[in-house]
Amino acid sequence: MANVNHIFTPDYPDSSSHTSAFDIGPITNVESLVNAAEGSNETDNGKLPDIVAETTRSNQEVELEETYLSIAVQVFIPFLIAGFGMVFAGLVLDRIQHWPVFEEITELVILIPALLGLKGNLEMTLASRLSTQANLGHMDTARQKFSIIVGNLTLIQCQAIVVGFLGAVVAVVMGGIKSNDVELDHAYLLCASSLVTVSIASFVLGLITAGVIVFSRYVHINPDNVATPIAASLGDITSLTLLSIVSTVLYDSIGTQDWLAPVIIAGYILAIPMWVWIAKKNLATRDVLYHGWTPVVGAMLISSVGGLILDFMVSRFEGIAVFQPVINGVGGNLVAVQASRISTALHKQAELGILHSEGNEDEEAVIFISPVNSFCGKGVHSRTTRVLMAMVLPGHIIFIYTIDYMKDGDTSLSTLFILVYLLAAVMQVATLLYVAYVMIHWMWKKKIDPDNSAIPYLTSFGDLLGISLLAIAFQFLYLIADHDTGEHSSLR
Asked: Keywords assigned by UniProt (predicted)?
């Protein structure tokens, strides 16, 4: 399926005003394509290839090559904001794991990574998709902004309800396999809590993400650098807070208002056709509605496996819960920035399915590059990789010491713990950045739009990899700890 992006052009009173709005210059072949699009809306709905849309920017926008410093500054500040959001999410998770509803219904712990992963499945994908549209000049008018943003908010609402329901069903099944028992009241509670959480969180975070991208364009900042971290900054804390509140309310209603959870589930399921109809009517989201389900459902299943590992490890090591949102969130944020940038670059270079080498349009890009070339190459993506890797150590050091301070030093941050934890974090991010390059170029070659498909897989794989490496780190520290001295007491 050929890739197209939709241009929503305002109605001009005459042709001269239209020409001034899009200062194309002497590129006659592009001009003819634009005029053809105006005269045949009934046949092509105003669709233009990405490479044509790129040349129709207003005000002859000139892209300057980004330096190490500009990338670092634009990425690091949102990265820090997002990191502190994940720190507070970790503290919330550390506290709510002892609440009666979480101790009684352990499937909620299995559900947590899937819900937190939805920011990668939905909000970060939304950020990547809107960033590409903004960089291609498709969100420069009020009409374009309104149509694209409303369509995408409707789309993620539909996806959130479906994936939230499936995530709850998977958690119920996994919990039933683990305990050989499924209680109907608990299953209703799990499904209703998941639906309310993902619906509200997706709407609020979607609005924030769209606002960040519009503002970034206004102040001439590349939205690819800031949108995905900001989308995640409130994602974890919002989802965990909503889940804990809603699940507690529904837990208290068991035995007195048993109808509440089933009514909530029925209401959300009945609302799905309405969201589907609205998203289908919008040209900006119609294609994603038809073909965007495999990544989000697949990512949810991968995150659920990570949730099963978390449920098992939380019962062994009490201190692991507070670090889980941080290590997963940092990896997800950094790889999402890289994925969004690579996807935008590919959209600008050529049509979907055509790969050009960086700096040489006559040569096809190599998909399966070596890790050495990925990290040490001269291309713009290798430069971004080095900048992002440079943020891992200082970022995690800031975050884990913030956790230690907020917990009044109960986390026993020994030198050995810090070294092992940072090693796990570096391994996770390095793996994700390399996989991102290969996956996105492979998807582009196969005519799969990476804006809709790459980030869900990358963030869910990052969640699974992060919790697995964290579990290995805690197990290693437990095996070498001197239990008689009380060191690493938080690992017990």
From this structure: Ion transport, Magnesium, Membrane, Transmembrane, Transmembrane helix, Transport
| Contact between 262 and 188 (Cβ < 8 Å) | yes
Tell me, what's the pLDDT at 141? 85
Contacts of 52 (CB under 8 A, 6+ apart): 30, 33, 34
Q: Which of 439, 432, 434, 442 is nearest to 454 (CA)?
A: 439
Q: What is the rounded distance in angstroms from the CA atom of residue 102 to the CA atom of residue 75?
A: 36
Q: Which residues does the chain have with pLDDT short of 50?
A: 1-64, 482-492
Q: What's the pLDDT score for residue 233?
A: 65
In the chain, the amino acid numbered 72 is A
Q: At what angle do helices 324-349 and 68-96 cross, to 10 degrees?
A: 140
Task: Report the alpha-carbon distance of residue 147 to residue 22 in Å, rounded.
Answer: 20
Q: What is the mean pLDDT of the chain?
A: 77
412 vs 17: CA distance, rounded Å: 67
CA dist list (Å): 323 to 307, 310, 422: 14, 11, 12
In the block, residue with structure tokens 């499904």: 191
Provide the pLDDT for residue 459.
83
Secondary structure letter of residue 123 according to DSSP: I
At residue 136, the pLDDT reads 81
Report the SS3 class of residue 56. coil
Distance CA 355, CA 345 (A): 11
Gap between the Cα atoms of 163 and 195, Å rounded: 9
448-483 confidence digits (pLDDT tens): 888 878 888 888 888 889 889 988 988 888 888 744
Q: Is the dihedral of CA 177, 179, 183, 186 positive or negative?
A: negative
Query: What 3-state class would DSSP assign to 65?
Result: coil
| Beta carbons of 386 and 375 less than 8 angstroms apart | yes
How many Cα neighbours within 13 Å face the side chain of 146?
5
Q: What gap in Å lies between CA 114 and CA 110, rounded to an integer?
A: 8
pTM of this structure: 0.68
Q: What is the pLDDT of residue 144?
A: 85
Which residues, 6 or more positions from 32, have their beta carbon under 8 angstroms from its beta carbon? Answer: none
Helices 293-314, 450-480: axis angle to 10 degrees equals 10
Report the alpha-carbon distance of residue 155 to residue 291 in Å, rounded.
Answer: 12
Instruction: Give residue 104's identity as a one-letter amino acid code.
Output: E
Residues 170/175/176/180 CA torsion (nearest 10 deg): 160
Q: Is the dihedral of CA 475, 477, 481, 483 positive or negative?
A: negative
CA separation, residue 17 to residues 10, 13, 21 (Å): 11, 7, 6
What is the rounded CA–CA span in Å between residue 173 and residue 157? Answer: 24
d(CA 44, CA 55): 19
